[in-house]
Amino acid sequence: QGDTSVVKSGSDLAALGMTLEPISEKTARALGLSYGLQVKSVSGTAAKSGIRTGFIIVKANNQSVRTEGDLSDIYNMAVSGNAMDRVLFLQGIYTNGRTASYIIELQ
């Protein structure tokens, strides 16, 4: 089934406004994925970017996202860059099979 990993307010990712958990084995099999983080709830910056509950993040800034730690590392690299590079480009899929990409501008 996988562990539930919630983005807490103290996390580097808290500013994005998402709670995340690893995808279940059932969902992974159904979509042909071997990894990803599923958005369980969304608000704030992530919601304004168009991300909806159920979105499965597979890549961020063209790097694989297998764990919340991976996404946190990618986020931290993005926010420490120059102003032009302060974005997260998220690629993934919804459980209905629709692929999607989102750009989140970081402060």
Describe the biggest sheet? 6 strands, antiparallel
Termini separation (Å)?
35 Å
- Total strand count, please? 6
Number of helices: 3
Shape call: globular
Q: Return residue spans where pLDDT drops below 50 for at least 5 consecutive residues.
A: 1-10
Give the overall pLDDT as a whole number. Answer: 87
Question: In which range does the helix fraction lie?
Answer: 10-25%
Strand fraction equals 25-35%
What pattern of helices and strands is seen along the backbone? EHEHEEHEE
What structural category arises from helix and sheet content?
alpha+beta
Radius of gyration: 13 Å
Walk me through the topology.
Layout: E1 18-22, H1 25-31, E2 37-42, H2 44-48, E3 56-60, E4 63-64, H3 68-79, E5 87-93, E6 99-105
Antiparallel strand pairs: 1-2, 2-3, 3-4, 3-5, 5-6
Characterise the protein shown here:
This protein is α+β, with helices and mostly antiparallel strands and 107 residues long. 22% of the residues lie in helices and 30% in strands. The protein has helices spanning 25-31, 44-48, 68-79, and strands spanning 18-22, 37-42, 56-60, 63-64, 87-93, 99-105. Strands 1, 2, 3, 4, 5 and 6 form a 6-stranded antiparallel β-sheet that branches. The N and C termini lie far apart (35 Å). 25% of the residues are buried.
Summarize this entry quickly.
Helix content is 22%, strand content 30%.
Keywords:
6 strands; 22% helix; 107 residues; disordered N terminus; single chain; six-stranded antiparallel β-sheet; 3 helices
